[in-house]
Amino acid sequence: MSDLGAVPVPGQFVLGEMTSTYTLPPLPYAYNALEPHISEQIMHLHHGRHHQAYIASLNALQKNYSAAAAANNLHEQLALQPLLKFHGGGHINHALFWPSLAPAQSDDALYPETKAPSLVAAVAAQWGSLGAFKAAFTAVLLGIQGSGWGWLTHSGSGSSSDHQLSIVTTKDQDVPVGDVVFGIDMWEHAYYLQYLNGKAAYVAGVWQVVNWTTAEARFTGQRPASVDYITVTLSE
Ligand SMILES: [Fe+2]
Question: Which domain holds residue 215?
């Protein structure tokens, strides 16, 4: 329903009802690969149920939004925007999360100094050492109230030495501003089945499975973070 009326604009390009359909990106490792730090059960539920649910809702919302736009129903479009933000953010954030992790015994997780030399140097320049950075990040993660995420982001252009790193948090499924280096899911669904209320133990476990190769590639611009969530098809 629209009582606002649509004023045709000469030369305006109309997309009609073409919509994007997002699909669940596969995990870059087996469901049990992050054991014992993140259990296979959690990974199955978190990836196959939670992330999939955000994508299913996002796809349905996109279709409804597209139909509302085609009908010039501004009220419906506005009503859908907060839901799109939540479920679209849920997709983006989780798609950024999975490649941020790697099996604890892999070189990607074991050797930050060799797998992420530019990033580790930048971290040391800002926080003094990798250990000091981890402590600062951990404190921020443990300070999150309710559901949210912790992120290491960078900004700047040109050589990596120009980049400013930031530890930021986002609430619920808000997406971070800035280019993501890595992110840590602090929703209870990410840890409760295994760690119960042991949030600090979960964070300690996550530090054992950070994928420093992904982090370095994102930091140096070799891997735009957006490539992790653009699995999409267009349809009418
Ligand atoms: Fe999650």
Answer: 107-227
Task: Say if residue 162 carries a ligand binding annotation.
Answer: no
pLDDT tens digits for range 45-92? 999 999 999 999 999 999 999 999 999 999 999 999 999 999 999 999
Question: Does the annotation list 50 as a binding residue?
Answer: no
CB 229 within 8 A of CB 23: no
The answer to whether residue 230 scores a pLDDT higher than 70 is no
Average model confidence (pLDDT) for the chain?
88
Helix, coil or strand: residue 154: strand
What's the mean pLDDT in 94-123? 96
Q: Among 180, 165, 183, which residue's Cα sits nearest to residue 226?
A: 180
In terms of domains, do 54 and 114 share one? no
Asked if residue 87 belongs to a known ligand binding site, the reply is: no
- Residues 204 and 151 both lie in one domain: yes
Ligand 1 centre to CA of 214 (Å) is 19
In a domain, 236, yes or no: no
